[in-house]
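In the present case, backbone shapes were mapped to integers, as reproduced here:
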Amino acid sequence: MDVAMRNFRAAGREGWAMTMQGISERAMRELAGVNAAFISVVTMDDAERRGGFGLADEIISRLRLLDDESRRRMAYRPFALFTLNFRDSAGWKQLVEQRVHDGDAAQYWPDDASRVHQFLAVTLAAVRELAEREPPSASVLFGIPPVLVDGLRDLDIGRLPAVATKIKPWLKARCATRHDWWSRMIVTSCAQGVECPCRHRGLHTSLMRALGLDQVRVKGGRLCRRL
């Protein structure tokens, strides 16, 4: 099972009585925007030919049927709907530590930049900015080990297109083989009402514990505190 999702599930047992203070509504909105972009990528006409990013054809077909409001609810989750193999700390460290040299063509956008490449570059920019502004939030929302957050924060912005090209094979839907999980998310997205923010706080709290962030202080206050 995906590490991040295992920790999210644990929140159902012990995270409900926690108040989240460290993850801002701005960060949640930005994540929702990135998730919405991922849904658009997953539902491209040639998504199945690309392997569906690990998702079954049936799930992709159902995602295509979502109207705009349902897609908005689908995107507003307390975690990224995709993974970028952040567990491979060594691989990411090597990518992050590379430097751009003057005249290096890799720093420029390719002429045939695909929607997938564009999505990855925009996502990297969002992760980089969040890692600089709210490091714990970057770890929690995208499932990034804290040891990688500092490196991503320092990632040369000129290298984003090149890095996006290299990580294309790493882009997968989160828990892609869990058809029941994706089906439930689709069903709840079609229902009226908005996902409960209190539930998001519980899920975030559990992941913070797993990432060793429960004692982190941000902006003058504790990241989490018991009621």
About this structure: DSSP finds eleven helices and six strands in the chain. The first strand starts at residue 18 and ends at 20.
